[in-house]
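Spend some time on the protein that follows and explain the fold to me:
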Amino acid sequence: MNAIVTSRPPASRRGWRDGYLEPIQRALKERILASGVVQLDDTPVKCQSRSGGELFEARLWTYLSPQVSGVVFDFTLDRTHEHVLEFLGEDIAGYLVGDGYAGYTTIVGKRPSVIQTGCWAHVLRKYRDALKDSPAQASPMMSLIAALFDVETAAIESKLDPASVLALREERSRPILDRIRLLAESLRSHGSEQEAFGKAQTYLFKQWPALARFLEDGRVPFHNNSCERAIRPVAVGRRNWLFTGSERGGRAAAIAYSLIESCRRVEVDPYVYLRDVLVRVATHPASRVDELTPDRWKLLFGPQSAA
């Protein structure tokens, strides 16, 4: 039997440090990347330099998929697109859902099999920012965008499969999208690019091809809010831990966040999960490491599985 590790069962403190749990994180990553729809977002974290003194701004990225019950975090020393390319790998194919980060365009250029997809929540926020200074222009745009959200809510409440979601979007969302485009075109002359409304308009037109991609595939999310929610605990947590002590510490934090947040997504107690997995991982076959991801562990080894 080819075990994931061959040394003695690890204590919990050694788990992050020595990589006992990294294969589980990697198994989640492989599932997410193979799903055909990858969502990503990032947030800054402070990291201590190798000299142990000065702090610099590193990043924690989060990746997930509507088709996978899990989330994976990745730690990088900066925000350059090369890190995302490395994470995605050479064989990635499908939709990449994110915000207006300029690096995504470069990523798609270097991975022709990847299709850039936009986030309508970002568009709505930008027009909301313009509401105070340009209410007559921003308000009708917001109303139309809200109508798109209503269609997505109806799809979720009806628990539609991707094919049915696509049909609903074709029937209800496409006409709304056409109206948004026409209204935005009619308002092109209002506001400068330095004003909030002008910035919202610039974002909409620049992102338009990516924003319309949700009409191509019912699996593609209309916005990236689920990814933003997944990364929110980092923003809350860093108020307490302030910074990572090193690059190694940042990578350990990424593993911890990956498994703990994946537990929460499938309603598994992270403490119960880690207490079991940190012992089980020492003898579990490497070929079946995916069984130790939180969602699969819940089915195979969780408390309810023994009932």
In short: Residues 119-210 form one domain. Strands lie at 37-48, 55-64, 71-76, 94-97, 114-117, 243-244. The longest helix spans residues 162-186.
